[in-house]
Recover the amino acids of this structure.
């Protein structure tokens, strides 16, 4: 076993887990602004729950992408070139979403404010679906030739696994956001979030569970059965806690489900980082897709100092902004011109 490439394969899995866990609920909150909030004050409550942290959460996406580029350049090159169109859409969606967060409160007409709300919703949905599709395809395979190039047209990547992964991350983000709102809000928003969480949690986690099962089945991995079983147990635990309105434990249960599910997926996929659906001989693995040992050693030294610093800063941020937010905390908005 190649120690450093394997180590970075694990670290990249951890980075994606961190992204899905932290960015998951704020992507979900972005979608819930249209699907859940009843009025302007509730939309502002939802926005304020993630306002101090959403940009920090996206650091995990940047870090995961950068780590893939540096540690496994062939994986990065094949994956990002094969998925050029969907990943470009994800980038555009994240840009519009970020701009909408900043400019929504500056809108002077309801039409403009509504447009920014749609930008947040669509940006969150497209980003969640696109990242889910990318990760699903990275673990189930793409039509790659011996050079690592995609075979077929610009939509050759689109298949059932892309849809499953996309829906899985979207659904997880929504249910994760409901648990998060149970921790960060009170009153009507918290009550309705708790009811929806208890009702829909197992349904929302099913696509992600099916993705994990599919990867384990495709690779016939016995080693992945233990984390897969843990994911199932965590899902049941989270549902029980949600039904008992213990939002904190439900939130933790969702986190364990995600961690165990990702562990099962990456364990089953190992040593492949990007399988080829054309011929297994064309698979990119931790050995043939990795950077030089010197690069990996240098990255390991940087990560040993950088990752704890990021974790410490984000932990401090969440601690500072730990208080619940209610509609009574939201001041009156500046007057706007109604939609005619």
């Amino acid at each position: 076993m190649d120690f450093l490439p394997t180590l970075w394969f694990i670290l990249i899995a951890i980075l994606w887990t961190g992204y899905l866990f932290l960015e998951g609920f704020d992507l979900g909150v972005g979608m819930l602004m249209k699907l859940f909030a009843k009025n302007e004050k509730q939309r502002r409550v939802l926005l304020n729950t993630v306002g101090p942290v959403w940009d920090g959460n996206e650091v995990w996406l940047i870090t995961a992408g950068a780590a893939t580029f540096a540690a496994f350049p062939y994986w990065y090159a094949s994956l990002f070139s094969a998925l050029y169109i969907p990943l470009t859409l994800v980038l555009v969606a994240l840009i519009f979403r970020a701009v909408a967060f900043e400019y929504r409160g500056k809108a002077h007409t309801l039409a403009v404010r509504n447009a920014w709300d749609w930008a947040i919703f669509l940006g969150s949905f497209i980003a969640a679906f696109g990242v889910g599709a990318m990760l699903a395809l990275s673990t189930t395979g793409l039509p790659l030739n011996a050079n690592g190039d995609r075979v077929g047209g610009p939509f050759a990547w689109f298949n059932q696994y892309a849809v499953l992964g996309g829906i899985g991350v979207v659904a997880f983000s929504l249910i994760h956001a409901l648990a998060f709102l149970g921790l960060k809000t009170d009153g009507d928003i918290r009550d309705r979030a708790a009811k929806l969480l208890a009702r829909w949690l197992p349904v929302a986690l099913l696509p992600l569970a099916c993705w994990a099962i599919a990867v384990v089945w495709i690779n016939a991995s016995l080693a992945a059965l233990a984390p897969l079983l843990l994911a199932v147990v965590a899902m049941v635990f989270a549902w029980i806690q949600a039904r008992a309105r213990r939002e904190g434990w439900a939130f933790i249960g969702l986190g364990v489900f995600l961690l165990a599910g990702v562990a099962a997926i990456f364990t089953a996929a190992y040593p492949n980082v990007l399988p080829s659906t054309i011929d297994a001989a064309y698979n990119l693995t931790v050995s043939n897709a990795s950077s030089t040992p010197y690069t990996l050693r240098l990255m390991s030294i940087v990560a040993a100092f950088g990752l704890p610093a990021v974790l410490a800063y984000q932990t401090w941020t969440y601690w500072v902004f730990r208080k619940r937010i209610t509609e009574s905390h939201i001041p009156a908005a500046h007057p706007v011109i109604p939609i005619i």
